[in-house]
Design goal:
Arc Repressor Mutant, subunit A; 10 helices; DNA-binding; homodimer
DNA sequence: TACGGTAGTTCAACCGTGATGAATTCTTCG
DNA sequence: CGAAGAATTCATCACGGTTGAACTACCGTA
């Protein structure tokens, strides 16, 4: 039954968010008494955390991003992020996760740890140099800003810009964060315009 | 009594957050029956919204930022933001506001509207040019990222960087967002290093 | 085969939450 | 004074997560 509860919970959490899903209704959905959830997961939050650990494993996406050439990381990162968050199947769970983390310090700690370990530290290693960690932090912070304003708050115009437009407006800034304001040796696509468009 | 309730609520919300403050305890604090809160504000959320409107008026800060010269806006914006959010008296209420907005769509709408009207639109006007609105959106998004990662999640290293360090690492990126990757005509402090430091 | 223990599962109840509607007091003004 | 209406309280509701006791099912062992 444990697995059933977990599966049902995953589905409903991602669809309806944390607060909207009640333990009783969840139990009913899984054909089980509500107390059983507490028995297995300790609390509603425990259940949610279990669902998170099950769902939240985009570490491999990150890895593949860092394997590519550093010069194009900004565009690739933006594209991957937007792709992941725009698709409801993957975006909704991420969104509810972040929402919950914003409200619950314990979950925030979980998310924070993940971000530091899987993103900041790795990127800093890859970057190297004196203030690598600072630059990596700023990079992650800027991507976090995208999540925050575009997906969590849906502030215009960011909320309805296309991936290309975001790459065009935010890409250069990310590049500056990684490599500094000075243009590197010309690489040929210095302007990093997205694929053909007006 | 309305004013008393509002005052007590403001204090406790900023200190303990939205969920932790219960209507009964709040009523007791204000020397009033809990039902009176509903009578005046309709609901707990209504009360919170009232508190928000009372508290959240940093529109003037924004205005003064936009009045200064555009070239130095990035540094000044970062400094103002960090100053406001680092001081507990002003930072805590902002934080609980954002937290609540992350959880509650209605409050998110409120915040979103404010950000668009008071920040994006104004900045876009000041910037001018073809994609002014896009650049303004990205600018606000990057500042939002600072709020999100440094204050909401407290991701390192951003969480413990000094204002100077943030200006150094994030400033150039913001400048790129506003003016593009090409350096403008030399202004004398091209590197925008913060005040004397290592 | 009977026994005992342990994991799985349900049941009933607890307590705290926000909300509501009727009942009461307090003001105010004709 | 005496209504009218606002302000305030009281009692109560429905619903949330959680808990402890009870019941069941299984599995190894004497």
């Amino acid at each position: 039954m444990r697995a059933t509860i977990l599966a049902v919970a995953r589905d409903r959490f991602r669809r309806e968010g944390y607060e909207a899903v009640t333990m009783r209704s969840l139990a009913a959905d899984a054909g089980v008494d509500a107390a059983l959830i507490s028995y297995y997961f300790g609390s509603k939050r425990g259940l949610f955390a279990a669902v998170l650990e099950l769902t939240l494993n985009p570490a491999d996406v990150l890895a593949s991003l860092l394997e590519g050439e550093l010069e194009s990381l900004p565009q690739r990162a933006i594209r991957a992020l937007v792709a992941g968050w725009d698709r409801p199947e993957t975006g909704l769970p991420l969104l509810t996760a972040v929402r919950a983390a914003a409200a619950d310090p314990a979950l925030a700690t979980l998310l924070r740890g993940g971000l530091q370990r899987e993103m900041v530290d790795r990127l800093a290693d890859r970057l190297g140099g004196a203030d690598a960690r600072h630059r990596a932090g700023a990079f992650v912070g800027q991507l976090g800003g995208l999540v925050f304003t575009r997906y969590l708050l849906a502030v215009e115009p960011l909320a309805s810009m296309t991936a290309d437009e975001i790459v065009r407006t935010l890409g250069p800034a990310l590049r500056t964060t990684l490599f500094g304001p000075v243009r590197r040796a010309a690489t040929g696509n210095d302007h990093a315009r997205g694929p053909a468009s007006a």
